[in-house]
Protein 1
Amino acid sequence: MRVTWELRGSKLFVYLSGELDHHAAHQALKQMGDVLDEHMPLRCVLDLSGLSFMDSSGIAVVLGTYRRLKSYGGELSVAGVPNHAAKVLTMAGVDRLVPIATATKG
């Protein structure tokens, strides 16, 4: 699991790549928490287009990020969501809290 990020103005883009499973979720939440605490962005885009696998642990990553941002008035959106990950997030109802944009094919 790899977590990278870039700040563009007041919007933070966080990119996850690799496999997001139980072990990687803990690491990702820690790294993302550090970045969020440092920059406290009002808007954050979590880009999942680099994921090759995501299990239900990905729900915890998205919801944990959502809660942290919401605690200081920030907003989260999730972009580039692969079909397999979109199914996991939608079945859990995450899409009712966080806007989710699936990856485009092309």
Protein 2
Amino acid sequence: MDGNEHAAQFIVGLRWESLPEPVRRQARLCLLDSLGALLAGTLTRVGRIAAAYAADTWRGDEATVLLAGRRAQAAGAAFANGCAANALDIDDDAVYTRGHPGAQLFPAALAVAEKVDAGGKALLEALVVGYEIAIRTARAWHSHHETYQACASWGSVACAAASARLLGLDAGQVQHALGIAEYLAPNAPMMRDIDRPAMVKHGIGWGAMHGVTSAELAARGFTGIPSILGFDEYRDWVADLGSRYSLAEGGVNRKRWCSCAWGHAAIHATLKLLRSHGIRVSEIARIRLHTFHEGWRLWQQPPTSTEEAQFSIKWPLATMLLDGQVGPDQVLEPRLDDPALNDLIGRIEVVEDPEINRMYRLRARGVTSPDARIASRAQVTLTDGRSFDSGIVDRESPSWDDELLEAKFRWLAAYVVPGETAEHLLRLVREFESLPSARALARAL
């Protein structure tokens, strides 16, 4: 049995009751985290554009474009909701992916679940399938392609897997769905958007839409090539499907700030330095940030759009220092003209550091080593001439237990729905596997 056959058997054969409890718990938390990111993402211009376009272009009544008062075909709803879920860059990322699985998988799975009126358990099973396929496909994808392609590339395959599961495809059809998704996947050259941030970002909406479409085509008999999961060189990365779950091993990382994770270590390094020495922001003459190449490529000019603010290394740090937060209020357009923030980013310099670069390269390749790190270093000079150095500091992530993740959800949901609606959604997620219809989630909104 090659990797494609094994992946198809895993996708078809997975059963919620047979999953370890840590996997089931993480699936619920992934659903909640993606839902919160999606709801807050509807505040953005890209979220509004995608919602209107999807309802006009994919006319239908299969699925809901959340908080837009519109419905569309499943592929259209997946596109619109996917664009919103990544619109504020506070959605999850995962090991080996160098990107965002949840913002694609949840919109795709929800749209297809609505289309076929699947229950909550079926949607959660599709999410588990999707995350496990995403992590392995992305690892193979980045190994195979010289150009760093963004999330919609490998994400299309993962969304096809989740959609195929919900559509009830057999193992042969699943293989075709994966092959269609991979062959026709978006070529999303990520670093070009890092250099000039725009609404295309990671291509999340396209990944969700293309995954749904690929599974729907396979269901009709459309054929695809064998996917990258069947390549001999990636056999070991696929062979543990069904016996090892990345979801239960810390494979998914969750974000507390609305900005690219490549800049988070710089925030941690600067905050650590200021707190350890009792430095006030008003005392800072300049900040020098040391980072890896991709972090250095992040936007360094004063941002003029929310995309430039999120894909900046300076702006999120400045808002954290002045506001103590990097949330929707800090990265949406109304805040971008703030003179105090723009003055502060003018005092920040970013340099590429060879040692930090080396550490990041090891981490990106999945090397298990103390040197495989996502790190930064901050040097702060005060107006009185004194200088301080943080040393190399890692990107930190809190321990995302249920309580902390629910607090994050309430924070994001409060921007767009009343408190009682947020609490109702939380209750639905807590008991999601017992819901007879996943449509209850959309109806609540």
Protein 3
Amino acid sequence: MNSLNRRNFLKAASATAAGSFVGSALPMFAAAQEPARAIAKNDHLQIGLIGAGIQGQGDTKVALQVPGVKLLAVADCYQGRLDHSKELWGNDLFTTRNYSEILARKDIDAVIIATPDHWHRQAAVDAMHAGKDVYCEKPMIHLYSDGPEIIETARTTNRVIQVGSQRVSSVVYAKAKELLASGAIGQLNTVTARWDRNSSMGAWNYTVPLDANTETCDWPRFLGTAPKIPFNAEQFFQWRKWKAYGSGVAGDLFVHLFSGTHFITGSKGPTRAMATGGLRFWKDGRDVPDVLLALFDYPEGFNLSLRVNFVDGGDESEGFIFTGSEGTMEIAGNTVSVSRTPRPSAPGYAIGTYTDAMQKRLLDAYHDKYPNSHQPAETSMNFEKFIAPSGYSDSYDHFNNFFQSVRSRKPVEEDAVFGFRAAGAALLSNLSYERGAVVGWDPVNMKLT
């Protein structure tokens, strides 16, 4: 896969943006490809996949595009996915329903964990204790108690753990971070994000295979710490719809928006959250809302507004807008754009209801204080747009960052502390929704208040 080097992208963007905010949209950047480093035969990182569902298989396909990475083993609770893994990656692939068998292998360097949320903590902790580095899908936690244990295990075992919110490795988000820090939109006051879906698949109604039964599905292993109930194929394959296994729209989608917000602003997280919503349309037995709206207060002086709507009647879409005192910055896919409307040099006046004499006195004082106010105000909007090259993948960059850290032992982009702060903030939405009240969060110490 062709990957864009972040350094070259930012260099090109900065060069193109010289004299920023004085013209029209910028052209797409041409990416200089960084030559792939030659990988010695004995230098391959050998990985295992734990959880071979939609996300797990997708993650692995991207991970294997990074030079020097080889898949040796796959664990999943459904036999059909183990069989398909061999169809994808070869009959010599080791497959098992018990991930402990993967962790016991000495030839596995790292694992991708893409299980249901309620297995993230246990699988990650087990893997790190087994000496494996970990790429753990978001949200890192299912319960707040998961976070401190994962962080402490990573510290005591000296293992690398990367949480899978790939936007923090995106060159587009890096450019947005640079623009905000440069004052491109002035003082940030609000961040507004939405994620609307209008399809059954978007609402997690994934197809259940025809052979789903207690022979092909390891139901007791899937349940893990969840309440023990009889086999339910829908809950096995559509687990995001139930809070016993998943974290609702907050853990699936909000967490991406929190990761992006924290990366761009440098914030550790919000201090208060308030949420509302409900189960409006998909009344199919699920126990998490399909519409969720939430507001968050940040100690840096801005507010975050989030919305997820699984009942949207329009196009499936996402929006992410940063509003400041001097303009707005919007991220859409692999683009970031900044719009600025020049602020008037003088505040203006409203004097028409006063006597003529008072109006004259006020105008004289006004023009003395603002001598340039006689000049016409500049009203045109300035617009700049930064576009990643066609085919750019932040997921590739995120995995590339992880594997580089595995080799070098240098910090990853999204370690367990960052992952906990993003997921902890996102799950405040669920807590506020369930309690019907404002909830507090200490983003520094990562504790509910």
